[in-house]
Input
Amino acid sequence: MLQAIGLTSTPRRDLPPLVDDLTFEARPGAVTALLGEPGSGKTTALRLMLELEPGRGVTYFRGRPLHRIPHPGREVGVLLGDVPGNPSRTVRGQLRMLCAAAGVPASRADTMLEVVGIAGLRDQRLGSLSLGMERRLGLAAALLSDPCTLLLDEPAAGLSPRERGWLHGLLRGHASLGGAVLFTTDDAKEAARTADRVVSIEAGRLVADQDAAEFARTRLRPRVAVRSPHAARLADVLGREARAAQRAVEIVEESGSRLSVYGSSCAEVGEAAFRHGVLVHQLADETGDTGAPRPPVPQARTEPGAHPAALEALAALAAPAAPRVPGGPAGSDDQAAAAAPGEAGSPSVPAPSASASAPSGTASGTASGTASGTASGTAPSAAGNVPSASDTVPSAAGIGRSAACAGRPASTVRRVGGPLRPLRYELCRVFGTATPVLTAAVVVAVSAVTALVLARAGGTPQTRLLAAWPQLMPLPPAALGAGLLGALAFGEEYRYPALAADRGTVPRRMGLLAAKLAVCAGLALALGALAVTADAAALELVFGRGPLHTPGEWASPAASWAGLLIGCAWAGVLASGVFRTATAGLAAVLAVPLMVVPLVRKALDGPSAYPASGLAARLRGLAWAQWPPEADRLILGALRVMAQPVGTALVLSLMVLLCAYGFTGLRSRVRW
Output
């Protein structure tokens, strides 16, 4: 049960709020449509439910608000607009990253690709997907963790009739297993045709909350659906008789053989056709364009051991459904288009043989035990290996409900929890694109060239020479690269609803923050080691051993170098988390040497009245166990690094950013 109570968006300047005191509910086992004209506040209402938009009101998902659910990503599946992932990430890599975020096995990604019929596109980049394939990917992401509730924003926008039929069949299968489905639309006919309940809003306020049959009867225009091989002649006859009788009749030619007559009745149309000898194949009253029963779905092959709940849902999908509204015709243009092969705008697929009607292996690992998710596999079309919109059957595979949803057998989707879940997500996010490799390549190249120029000019200490750090530059190339990787650590958590709705992956949990800091620190150290190694190799190759010599003290410069890199990476992580943009994270990295360091240097200038000499010996006396004398040098080196202006500035900046990060997290949790 989804209950939205008093949803109100933040008022705009001199304008009313987009959503104003909106209250409704979406029941389990039913499909609910949120209907409204463009700009009526449908998307804002969904964002308020997911706590992605500031405002007032509360939404209960089975009795609990989203911020009170331990793992909301397992409770709510979300599809808002396009997939906002990195365009260079592959389809499979995107789903594997979301699997790690939701705490489900990585194999679930391949299963859901089979279910939505884009298994053949697993290696395609997100930026190369068509609208229909991208919508299928969004549905796969929404269904990954077997959620009880689906929130979809305009899921059928821009799709062909065939793809719309597939989509609504999938949503119907989810609801038949006890799940709650809420989708937005601006098409009243689509809402009446596909939903069990229609919630109408206008200017952000509730207008009506009705069953689909009542909605169609009271808010859609009645008409007469006529099919005739002589449709044009019949339209001319009806028009002439209406003008002669001075009646207001509207005749719409919807296809070559179909007419929709508004303002008349079946008796009047039939008598006019009889008088003029026009052959009629179909004559039926309709309450709006409510469509026809869904055509039977070919039965997919099932694997042994599938749950009865999944099999029942698949059987429900395969069985013809009753019309939503009494008086519907035996067919509609949309359904006829869905049945016609080679429809314009939809890729055609050669008809597979009966033995290839469903791929094996899609049953294992799906939710609620599984039926196969495809009826004709994912046969590529002749144009670019893109599967047809009708080559997959919306099945129960991957959309089973847990026992708490509908009293069915518990979901068989194995949960992968524990403290390593954020680390798995972060590793998938970082290495799912070529950004770290490209950054490392650029940093190593720039660092080596800079080191050669400094060695050619002379007068640069060896520590700065190996770091490729001229006096004029605020930071060496490796530190800038580490800060850039840190600044890119946040971003998808705010742009992807499946992540933003899950408080376990939103950057307000210390587990995710620790994982990001650990991964960024490792990347920074690896980047620094690569840069120093490349600089030393370039110097020895060009100048021999002239600029290099064996250092007498290496621990303190190494600790200083590591601290600088990690500090820059962490500053980028925290700043991008606070300001929710990678640009602000990189700006914070540059602000440390340009703004904070001069202030710290000015504060530290001048002799100290009480020097801190002998601190290491006093710390040894306070310790429970005696450490070896060699540890004194490491402690002194660390203190020396901390005493430097850059080290002090980094520590102060990190403390400020960490406090700001915690403050924004606490502020975002304020609810009423």
